[in-house]
Amino acid sequence: MSTRKAMQGLNDKELARLTIDFFRRSALHYGLWFNEVNYQLGLEEALKTEAIVFQKFYPILMKRLSDTLGFELEDGLPGSLARFPRKKMEALADSIAANWLAADGIWFQTVEQRQEMFTAKRCNDTCWTKFSPVEAYGIKQLLRLPEAGGIDALEAALSYRLYARINVQRMERQDGSLIFRMEECRVQRARKLKRLEEYACKSAGIVEYSRFACTIDSRIKTQCIACPPDNHPAEWACAWKFYIE
Q1: Cys-Cys link to 181, which of 128, 141, 236, 243 (CB 3.0-4.6 A)?
Q2: What does pTM read for this prediction?
Q3: For residues 128 and 204, is the Cβ–Cβ distance under 8 A?
Q4: Do both 100 and 217 map to the same domain?
């Protein structure tokens, strides 16, 4: 029997689930390619390579999906998405950001349940060493920030992170440095509602913020003002200082 004919034995829902799983496998394979190039050639080369790959792959992806699903393209975007009302587009961005955080939390909890807290924290911190530069590099390209944009570039970039859509954060300048405060953290707020202790995220935060900042401009230094398990005011969950010596 032809392998293509095997799908004919599926009912409509089973075929739909298989199609979703094709998306999942494709995303995993794309990520595995990035991870392997990072391992073999280093993070900087992996970031540059992924940018070229996506630039080449995106038009192919959109053209094939538009032909299959029957939607028109406008400047490389699905026409209906390009004409989406602004409020709905912002709601979609918020939904994507919230789903990203949900997936991150489920990964952490699942590793913790199958192993223990130490291993989950180790996986989490290591993940941030890669994801922060990925996010910073993408934002840098999106905003066309200069290579040595300094504190101005970092301030602009921090407003375009996934976290910026789901947390309440504030920035201010002090003597040439940038002070960043997370006034409301979705993760810590959820733990508080469950009457759990704050998650001790300082080790991940140090990696996350320092790697993000130095990807925007390698001269930028990061200092943790306070982050759980540190004591901090009720007005914010964590705070960071960015400066150039």
Answers
A1: 236
A2: 0.90
A3: yes
A4: yes
Contact present, 190 and 115 (Cβ < 8 Å): no
Residue 60 domain boundaries: 13-83
Total domains in the fold of the chain: 2
Which of 83, 107, 138 is the last residue before a domain boundary? Answer: 83
- Residue at a domain's end among 52, 67, 83: 83
pLDDT in tens, 185-216: 999 999 889 998 999 999 999 999 999 999 99
184: its two tokens: 């409301």
